[in-house]
Amino acid sequence: MVPFVFRRLFYIIPVILGVSVCVFLIIHLMPGDPARIMAGIDASEADVRLVRHSLRLDEPLHLQYIHFIYRAAIGDLGISFRTRRPVIEEIGSRYLNTLLLGTASILVAILLGGITGIISAVRKYSIFDNLSLLVSLAGVSMPTFYLGLLLMLFFSVKLGWFPLAGMESWSNVVLPAVTLGTPSAAVISRMVRSSLVDVLDQDYIRTARAKGLKEWVVIGKHALRNAMINAVTVVGLQVGYLLGGAVVTETVFAWPGIGRLVVQSILARDFPVVQAAVLILAITFVVVNLLTDLLYGLLDPRISIQ
């Protein structure tokens, strides 16, 4: 297991380097002159040159990249053009808010998707199975912002059960989490159903039933563990969707997260904040995929010795 862990850790190094190159190039590919934006509209050419020199934008590209990697490694992600505050301070609390929303969303997705997927597999082709398929198709097809507006209209405006927006109490996270987690729940549900149906047709499941084991023991102890490999893959991939979908969901619900900050920073052409936010979200996704790979080894020890 230890060599397997070290191999996976080694594999993420080139991925993170590739991500850092793409993030670094953002400031060079986006329209506008960062030095001019930082100096202000009324700044003279001398002031712009001074700012460009302080940002090291007058150096060769490879030297700028080395300096960018070094600063990122020590936690210096630059200064926000918009607020003149350190980027790490701008992102810190908002990143934690996004993690809170993402964790709640993935829990909603796993609970809803896992439960409906298991029931659909056990009661294959039943009314519940067909209804689950219909709901899953609707969940995948419906745009996130539209689902969020519908939930706000029904549960906030008409029933008054949950707040419309903001982040004042635990109840504020319910509607954004359901909005963000519903499409992922639909995907997880169909994957769990498909994997579990295949496993339930295996000979060892029939043998377990022939021994007189209770159905919940057959499903929970023998079938689910082998069906979870594919489901874990989908859950890991859905984290990337949740990080991307958080931009829309946070904007709809005025959630003070990193996704909403990215939208505001793009509109204000605040390049350092955009760079840092994309880098942190990308590294988060890479780490989650690493944890998913390690979970494979726990679920199926044969994978860890390959």
Blueprint of the fold:
Elements: H1 2-29, H2 34-39, H3 45-54, H4 61-73, H5 87-122, H6 127-141, H7 144-158, H8 174-200, H9 203-210, H10 215-252, H11 258-267, H12 271-299, H13 301-304
Helix pairs in contact: 1-12, 5-6, 5-8, 5-10, 5-12, 6-8, 7-8, 7-10, 8-10, 10-11, 10-12, 11-12
In short:
With 306 residues, this protein is mostly helical. The protein is built from 13 helices and no strands.
Fold and architecture overview:
- The mean pLDDT is 78.
- The protein has helices spanning 2-29, 34-39, 45-54, 61-73, 87-122, 127-141, 144-158, 174-200, 203-210, 215-252, 258-267, 271-299, 301-304.
- With 306 residues, it is mainly alpha-helical.
- The chain has two domains: 35-76, no CATH class; 93-268, Orthogonal Bundle (MetI-like fold), CATH 1.10.3720.
- α5 crosses α8 (174-200) and α7 packs across α10.
- The chain contains 13 helices and no strands.
